[in-house]
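REQUEST FORM: STRUCTURE PREDICTION
Request ID: SP-0412
Submitted by: Lab K.M.
Chain count: 1
Length (residues): 1073
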Amino acid sequence: MRKISVLLFLGWVCFLFYAGIALFTSGFLLTRLELTNHSSCQELPGPGSLPWGSQGKPGACWMASRFSRVVLVLIDALRFDFAQPQRSHVPGKLPASLPFLGKLVSLKRILEIQPHHARLYRSQVDPPTTTMQRLKALTTGSLPTFIDAGSNFASHAIVEDNLIKQLTSAGRRVVFMGDDTWKDLFPGAFSQAFFFSSFNVRDLHTVDNGILEHLYPTMDSGEWDVLIAHFLGVDHCGHKHGPHHPEMAKKLSQVDQVIQGLMERLENDTLLVVAGDHGMTMNGDHGGDSELEVSAALFLYSSTPLFPSTPPEEPEVIPQVSLVPTLALLLGLPIPFGNIGEVIAELFSGDKDSQPHPSALAQASALHLNAQQVSRFLHTYSAATQDLHVKELHQLQKLFSKASADYQWLLQNPHRTDVTLRTVIAELQQFLRGARAMCIKSWARFSLVRMAGGVALLAAACFLCLLTSQWATSPGFPFCPLLLIPVVWGLAGAIVCAGLLSVNGLKLDSVVLGAVAAVGSLLAFLWKAWAGWGSRRPLATLLPIPGPVLLLLLIRLAAFFSDSFVVAEARATPFLLGSLILLLVAQLHWEGQLLPPKLLTVPRLGSSAPVGSPRHSGTYALRLGVGLLLCTRLAGLFHRCPEETPACHSSPWLSPLASMVGGRAKNLWYGACVGSLVALLAAVRLWLHRYGNLKSPEPPVLFVRWGLPLMALSTAAYWALASGADEAPPRLRALVAGASVVLPRAVAGLAASGLMLLLWRPVTVLVKAGAGTSRTRTVLTPFSGPPTSQADLDYVVPQIYRHMQEEFRGRLEKTKPQGPLTVAAYQLGSVYSAAMVTALTLLAFPLLLLHAERISLVFLLLFLQSFLLLHLLAAGIPITASGPFTVPWQAVSAWALMATQTFYSTGHQPVFPAIHWHAAFVGFPEGHGSSTWLPALLVGANTFASHLLFAGLKKRQQSPGKEVEARVRPEEEEEPLMEMRLRDAPHHFNAALLQLGLKYLFVLGVQILACALAASILRRHLMVWKVFAPKFIFEAMGFIVSSVGLLLGIALVMRVDGAVSSWFRQLVLAKQR
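STATUS: Completed
RESULT:
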C-alpha cells in the first residue's frame, strides 16, 4: 500500500461523512420561505373600507397616524431587569447593590410622575437571541428560523417587507447612527447614516460616543422623521466583563443620561421608543433561549398623554414582534406584509367626543386591520408552500371570519355595548396569537426523507470504517483498485442526477448531488470489497471492538438521547475517561505485559527469535495511570455551567485577567499563567532532550531552541498588556494598543515559520562519521540477585554466554586493520515523534492566545495527558515486537474522550451563547472591516482547539527509549530500532496509519450519528432547539475539524517518512562514492 493511497482513502471516507452531515442538516435545519410581497396604502389588507376614525382624514393609510415622528433608541442587550424600577423592601427581589440594578432612574421617575405618558413592558424575544435576527424581527415582524443564527456576522439585505422600506416608500426621512449591521440589512435606505463597527466586543465606548456626537445635533436640526440610534456599549460590556462588573453600572448610567436628554428635547408629535433587542446571561452572553436572554426591556414615552390608564403593578409581557404593527399604524403606515405580531392595543384610543366607547372601538379597529393583514399573509404563504398545518389553518380562518363579521356588525350597530366590544377584541387577539403560535410550530419543519437519508449515509460510513479498519492490516488488500471504480460510479451518478434535474427544470442542489455521489461510490465499494475479499473472512471479525470498550462507547452514545445527560456531559466525560484508563491498566496487567522481565520466558541459546519482554514494570504503568487520572481531575476544575443548572457555579478561572478587580490577585494569577507557559515549554523541551532530538543542527531544532522561547515571551507580554490595558497611563495607551496588535501576529508568524521549516527539513537527526566499530552491543539486565529458579537460569545464562562471545570477537577485531568508515545517526528512534510534538507545540501557542490567560493551565494538562497516555500504551508493547502494528481501540476511544473533556475544560459548551467571540479580536482589536472569514476562522479555532490538537497528536508508534544509534555500512542495512523498526515493512507502516485513521473516524462518526438520531427521534421534544440541535451542530463542526486535523497529521507523518527514506538513500549513495 502506497502512502498516497492512505490519504486518498481517508479523504474519501471523510467525504462520505461530510455528505451525510450535509444531507441531514438540510432536512433538519431548514429556513422558511421569505415572501417578497409588500403592503401598500392603495391596497387594504382585506375587504371593506377604511377603519373607524380614518375616514375623511388627509393622508390616511389604513389608519390615521397618531405621531409624525419617532425616535427609536435600541440598547443592545438591554435586559428587562436592567430597566425595571427597583422597589425597596420587596421580599425575593435582588439587592439594589448589584451593578446592573436601579441605574435607569429616569424611567422610574417618569413612570411615577407621568403614568399616562409612559409605559414599561417586558419584551418577550424569540430565539435565537443574536443581533441580526432580532433586527429582522424588529423591522419585519416575522420570526427568523434556527439556522439563521449562523449568519449573525454575515448579514444580507432583507428582502421581506419591513418598516424601513415602508418609511422610505412614504417619503419619510430616516436617519440612522450606530451598529453597522443595519448597513448590510438596509443598504441605501437611510437619508443620513453614521455607521460604526459592531464586531469589536472589547470596545465599550467607540460606538456609543460616536452616536452621542451626532444624536443631539441631528435631533435639534429637525431634518428627520424617524431617528434610529443603536447603542452597543451595554452588550459589549456584558461580553467583556459580564453584568456584575462595575463597568456595567457606568454604561447603564450613560444610557440613563441619554434617555433623560431625549425626553427633554421631545416634541408633542414625537414618540420615544427605548428597546433592547435581547437580554444576556449571567455571564454576559446571548444567542440561546434562556429566560434572561429572551427577556428584554421596551419603554414608550410621549410628551402628551398616551395611555388611558395607569401602569399595572407588574409590567405586561408582550412579544417583541408586536412593536412592528404598532409603530406602523401609529405612524400611518401599512403593516409589513409578513408581520405576525399583534398590535399593543392600549396605544390606540379614539376621540372621546366622537363615538361611545371610543377607546375600545379604536383598539378593535387596530386589531381588525392587524388580523386582516395576518390572514392575508397566511393565505399567501400557504399557497406558496405546504409548511403550515392545514387543520390548524382552517380553524384559524373560521375564527377570523367570525371575529371579522362581529366587528362589521359593531360598525353598523349604533347601540353597541362595552361587553360586545370586549368580546370582539378578545376574538381578534385569540386569532392573532393562534396564528403566531402556529407559525412558530410550523416553521420548525423537517424533511424526513433527507433526515433519514443523512442518518443512513452516516451509519453506512461508520460501518465502512469498522469493516476496513480490520482489512487494513491484511496483506495484499487492494484499496486503490477497489476505490477507483466506485468513485467513478459515484461521479457518474452525480452527473446523471444533475442532468435529470436540469431537464425537468428543477434547481440543482449541491447537497443532493454530493449525497448521490457518496452513496454511489459507497455501495459500489462495499459490493466489490465484500464479493472479492470480505466473503472469505469470518463474520466475527466485523465487530472487533473489545466488550468493555464497546460498553463504555454505548453508554456515551445512549447519553446523547437524554437532554439531562447532554447538559451534564462535562461531568460525565471525565468519569468515562477515568474508567477507560483504569480498564487499560488492568488489561495490560491481565495480559502479562507489565510483569518484570525476568519472569518471562526468553528464547533458548542459538534461537534467532527476538526477546519479547516489555520495557517497564507494572509500577511504572501504575504511575502513568495515576498521573492520567490526576490530570483528568485537575482539568475538571475548569468548567462552565450550563444555563439549565442554576445551582452550579462556573469556574472563576475561565474569565480573562482583565475582568479581575483586585490588583494583587491579578498579579498572582498572571504569575501562575506565565509559570504554566514555562512549564509547557519546559515539558516539550525536556521530552525532546531526553530522546536526543535537541542535538540535531537541523533548522527545526534550532527553531525549537530559540523560536519557542521567543513565542512564549511574546505570549506572556501580550497577556500582561491585555490584562492591564485599561489601567495604562494615557501617554502609553497608543504604545499598548500597537503592541496588542503586533505581539499576537508575531506569535502566529513565528508558528507559521516553524511549521514551514519543519515541512522543509522534518528529519531531526545528528549524523557523525567515524571508524568502523562493532555493529551491536548486548544489553544486560540489571543484577537482581542470584538465580533462584529454572526461569532465572533460562534468562541469565544465555546473556552471559552472548556477552563472552562478543568480548572474544572484540579482541580478535583489535588485531585486524581498522574497518570501513561508519556513519552514526542519532535520534532515529524518535524521528516521527519529534516532528509531531514540534508541530503541535507550534500550533498550540497561537491557539492559546485565542483563549483567556488562565486556560494555559488546561493546555499544560492537555499535553501532559497526551504524553502519559502514549507512554502508558507504549509500556505494554514489546521492544522487538514484529508484524503489523495495531492501535488498540482503548487508545482511540480515550483520545476522543480527552478531546471532549478539553473542549469543556477550556470554557466551552455546545450552545451558541457560550461561544468565545472575543477570540475574533486577538491581534485585530479594531475589527476586520468587511471581512467575515477571518473572524469566523479565529472564533472557530478557539472553539475547536481541542479537536484540532488531539486529532493531530497521533504519535502512533511506541514511545522511544533513550538515545539510539543506527549505523549504515555498504555491506549491511540499518538496524530497526524503536520507531525505525517500522521501516522494515513499509506496508505495515502505511496499514497502521490507515487503521488508526479509520478507527478514529469511526469513534467520531458514531458520535455524530448518535446526535443525528437523537435530533431525529426527539425533533418534537421541548428541548430540541435548546439542547439537541446545538449539540448536533457542534458535534458536526467538531467532526469536520477533527477529520481535517487527522488528515493533516497523517500527511505530516508521511512527509517525515518520505524525508527519512530520502535521507537513507543519500547516505548509502554517499558511502558508495
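NOTES: The chain has 31 helices and eleven strands.
Reviewed by: T.R.
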